[in-house]
Amino acid sequence: FFGETAGKLRLLFDQIAQTRAVYLLDEFDAIGSRRGDPNDVGEIRRVLNSVLAFMEEPNSTDSVVIAATNHSEMLDNALARRFDEVVEYSLPDDQAASLLLNRRLGKFKPAAKSWSKVKPLLNGLSQGELVRAADAVVRDAILADAARVTIDNLCAALSDRQAFRVRFHPEPSAK
Predict the structure, then answer these.
(1) Distance CA 21, CA 117 (A)
(2) In terms of Cα–Cα distance, which of 51, 103, 61 is closest to 82?
(3) Residue from 108, 112, 111, 114 nearest 134 by CA
(4) Whole-angstrom Cα distance, residue 166 to residue 170?
(5) CATH fourth-level superfamily of 5-82
(6) CA gap 74, 55 in Å, rounded
(7) What is the mean pLDDT of residues 17-41?
(8) 5-82 and 94-168: same fold?
(9) Percent of the chain with pLDDT over 70
């Protein structure tokens, strides 16, 4: 309910202070969004201020706290100085994407000579998208009792991931 988020975060940060561990705060943009959003009724600002205060508490934890987001551009600038390290993962180049697919497909990978069809479909896909495409075709091969993935099925899975990417993450239009 409205106003409860900061209290729940207080409980979380109390737990972090009491129990030494590695904590992952996934989708951190949900609580670390930039202040000043015209649609905010004050809740985002209160939540972010609470997070910033919790993170500034002296000797607050011996734990490792990791925050993850796919939308770093949405994070408030004040968060940057609260973290010791910032690690960004860029999209893999063709070589890294091919290596990832080969490793993920394992014994199910198609013949090497057919990989030229795959290369144009790798551009712009993240490591996660490549893994999902590989897992889907391996699953289909297992269900079909096939020894290998077909290059056509792999291309179709990569094309599906490309279509999904374009649909939900369109490129900014050139001005």
Answers:
(1) 45
(2) 51
(3) 108
(4) 5
(5) P-loop containing nucleotide triphosphate hydrolases (3.40.50.300)
(6) 19
(7) 75
(8) no
(9) 83
Report domain extents, the chain. Answer: 5-82, 94-168
The one-letter code for the residue type at 157 is A
How many Cβ atoms from other residues are within 10 Å of residue 105's Cβ? 19
CA distance 171 to 175: 12
Instruction: Report residue 168 CA to chain centroid gap.
Output: 14
Which helix (H) or strand (E) is 11 found in, with range? helix 5-18
Tokens matching residue 77: 């600038």
Q: Are 123 and 94 in contact (CB under 8 A)?
A: yes
Token digits of residue 21: 């561990």
CA torsion sign for 28, 34, 40, 46 is positive
> Which token pair is 41?
């009724």
**In this structure, which CATH number among 1.20.950, 1.10.3470, 1.10.8, 1.20.120 belongs to the domain 94-168?**
1.10.8
Strand partners, 66: 24
Q: What is the pLDDT of residues 67-105, one digit of tens each?
A: 888 877 777 777 777 778 888 888 999 999 999 999 999
What mean pLDDT, rounded, does the chain reach?
82
